Amino acid sequence: MKKKIAIFASGSGTNAEKIMSHFQDHELGEVALVLSNKPDAFVLERARKFNVPAHVFDRERFYNSTEILDLMIDAGISLIVLAGFLWLVPADLIRAFPNRMINIHPALLPKYGGKGMYGRYVHEAVINNKEKESGISIHYVNEVYDDGKIIRQEKCEVKPDDTPESLAQRIHLLEHRYYPLVIEELLQGLDWPPGSLNREKKSDPAP
């Protein structure tokens, strides 16, 4: 039986598309669900292109109900993948999927991580601080932004004439190459269900 992946994304979804493409006819796993907190996010169009069911939610439903956790359980999700998802994940969802929720960050953590450090803001900070290299960090998700155990990092050069846009292009190449491979490696060691699942009503306040 194929293991099922859920992707959370807030924006365009280029990483999500690469993951869906990688697992489209894969014997190990498949993307079973794409979720977004933005009803106009282009990632939803990408999901339709691959005939992957999509689900949109708001802040209230994410932080103050069990809707998303129940959806993960009912869909038989083995691994949750964050791909440009900008909200902090609530604690009960993290507890329900221990070491089964991962994120990709466009810098070499622990540098240039934390709340507000995403996309262009990361690349601007790297360039302004005259770093010689940047890259990607794929890590487990915990209750702090960009703080979970690092699974894999890959590096690229920061050139003297780089702009945030030119650096982002090289970062995207690393993301698109390595994120699907790391997901594949993780799926090989995962089975459903992921331990004890907490269906209790959420009490975690929205950040």
Q: How does this structure look, described?
A:
- A seven-stranded mixed β-sheet has the order 3-2-1-4-5-6-7, with helices on both faces.
- The protein is globular and about 50 Å long.
- It has a single domain (3-187), classed as Rossmann fold (3-Layer(aba) Sandwich), CATH 3.40.50.
- The longest helix is centred in the C-terminal third of the chain and has 24 residues, at 164-187.
- The protein is an alpha/beta fold.
- The protein has seven helices and seven strands; from the N terminus they run E-H-E-H-E-H-H-E-H-E-H-E-E-H.
- Helix 1 packs parallel to helix 7 (164-187) and helix 6 (120-128) packs across helix 7.
- Strand 4 (77-82), helix 5 and strand 5 (101-105) form a beta-alpha-beta unit.
Uncertain spans: 195-207
Strand fraction equals: 15-25%
Q: Count the beta strands.
A: 7
Strand order of the largest sheet: 3-2-1-4-5-6-7
Q: If you consult CATH, what is the topology?
A: Rossmann fold
The SSE order reads EHEHEHHEHEHEEH
- Helix share, percent: 25-40%
How many structural domains in the coordinates? Answer: 1
Task: Tell the overall outline.
Answer: globular
Mean pLDDT: 92
The number of helical segments is 7
For the largest beta-sheet, the strand count, sense and barrel status come to: 7 strands, mixed
Radius of gyration: 17 Å
| Reported CATH architecture | 3-Layer(aba) Sandwich
Tell me the name of the CATH class. Alpha Beta
Supply the CATH superfamily name: Formyl transferase, N-terminal domain
| Helix and strand composition category | alpha/beta
The separation of the N and C termini measures 37 Å
